[in-house]
Amino acid sequence: KPVNDQHGHGVGDLLLQSVALRIEGCLRGSDTAARMGGDEFVALLCNIYTPEDALGVAEKIRFALQEPVVTSGDISIQCSCSIGVAIYPDHGDTAQDLLRLGDGAMYRAKKAGGDTVEISAHSEESRALDEVGCAGSSIFD
Cα–Cα distance between 140 and 136 in angstroms, integer? Predict the structure, then answer.
């Protein structure tokens, strides 16, 4: 919204396209990236077996998004991201659970000051969060 307000929707669209391409550039052919809406994206990583593997990809994405986007009109836009990571089956058994838990981790990253990566709580902690009514729906912002 701030980019759209300051530079117009064309520049905002260019920024979203650039973010999408940078995220895709950090993934393997077997992985999937999608825009959830607004400025939120999700990445589905196949055959990730350890939290370190997932965190490595998340950090690669975070660093890729730190590079400024420069428009044809020489407008330079610096952005950052907060990334939440949830891993199947360690953190959740369903796509809905993984999105919700990734979203919770993303909001913890934002609360910690942003431009960082947070991993979801383990499944036992996640169930406790469910009992107190925590919810969410995305991974990148």
Answer: 12
122: left (phi over 0), alpha (psi -120 to 50) or beta: beta
CB within 8 Å of 73: residues ≥ 6 apart: none
Radius of gyration of the chain (CA): 16
pLDDT in tens, 71-119: 888 999 999 999 999 999 999 999 999 999 999 999 999 999 999 999 9
Residue entry with tokens 């920024």: 15
Q: What is the DSSP string of 2-49?
A: HHHHHH-HHHHHHHHHHHHHHHHHTS-TT-EEEEEETTEEEEE-SS--
CA–CA gap between residue 7 and residue 75 (Å, rounded): 9
Whole-structure pTM value: 0.84
The pLDDT tens digits of the residues spanning 66-83 come to: 999 998 889 999 999 999
Tell me if the bond preceding 2 is cis, omega within 30° of 0. Answer: no
